[in-house]
Write a structure and sequence with these properties.
The protein is an alpha/beta fold. The chain has two domains: about 240 residues, Rossmann fold (3-Layer(aba) Sandwich), CATH 3.40.50.12710; about 80 residues, no CATH class. The chain is built from 13 helices and 20 strands. The strands form five sheets. Strands 1, 4, 5, 6, 8, 13, 19 and 20 form an eight-stranded mixed sheet that branches. Helix 5 packs across helix 6 and helix 8 runs parallel beside helix 9. The chain is globular and about 70 Å long.
Length: about 375
Amino acid sequence: MRGTGRFAGLVQIEGTPDTDPATGGLRHRGTRHKAPRNLTHMTGSTPLGMPPMPPPTTDPPWKKAWDAALYGPEGFFRRESPVAHFRTSVHASPLFARALVALTRRAGLDTIVDVGAGRGELLAEAHRIDPTLTLLGVEVAPRPAELPEAVAWTSALPESVEGLVVANEWLDNIPCHVVEVDGSGTPRIVHVDPASGEETFGAPLADRAVPAGIAAWCERWWPLAGREPGARAEVGTTRDEAWADVVRRVTGGVAVAVDYGHTAQTRPPSGTLRSYRDGQEVDVLPDGSRDVTAHVAVDAVAARVAGTVVRQREALRSLGVDGTRPELALATRDPQGYVRALSRATEAAELTEETGLGGFSWVVSTHADVPPASQLLS
């Protein structure tokens, strides 16, 4: 078997370097709106017919504020247990962990690395299912006290891995730049006051102060040219690079990113920034008191790593997660068995529901020493 405990050369996770653009613009509320906002009054001409000169701002771009809110010294994910605030496939059912263990064995591997491991719930369940697996959690938070001793823990990515590397709802928490079309039709970097959530228009994407990669990514993956004022995009450069950095470390095995997202045909016109706290959606605010998340442009991520996009519904079904209800006759022959089977079917149905978790995307990359995704998940 490949991958016996073979993760080596732990290195610190580093953010993607990015130059913050020059700023300017008038303020508007940072709370996410479901409809595009009309910002014409912010960028229209003065009574003399001259363009307004926006005041300077010291507010950071969304990417910087978001990063500090989640991963700074007192950041949300350093303090908080994710399960206290939102629920993922890992928390929905142990069938999710069982499916990933099945994928690991199907690929001929015996190591699982969980990137963005939360409190280690996935790895703890994988250890219960198969104690022979080598398991490593990668997370900025300290090692949970209740985690089985057999599960290793680090705040760094291994330099190399032979095994299954999985990141469940990790990419949506990778901070990124936010861009919005102003009243004159110009896409601009959006800045935000972390304390109030009020936003400020920054430099146009064409400005020399703005990294060229931002405009290039938008042009290819989320075009804003000709869009109405208020149209927004979350720029996926940081997500693409973060996942490419993970995939390059897989020297043998499989890498799977699981997340909610969209493709070119389904981009949301107003963006997807959201916040969650205590199990409820709340106003978007990058102050460290709540989760900040945005859907992932999964087609861009897949293209960056030459990966295959598979719906969770199909992926889990191929790994034995079946939501078919047991026959009623079983209730007569074996009442307790019927209850257990019904419970499994209910959990499986939640994991594979097309309008819920089943609609999530798996971006799958396989190394040359394992079968391609089309075979692994068939």
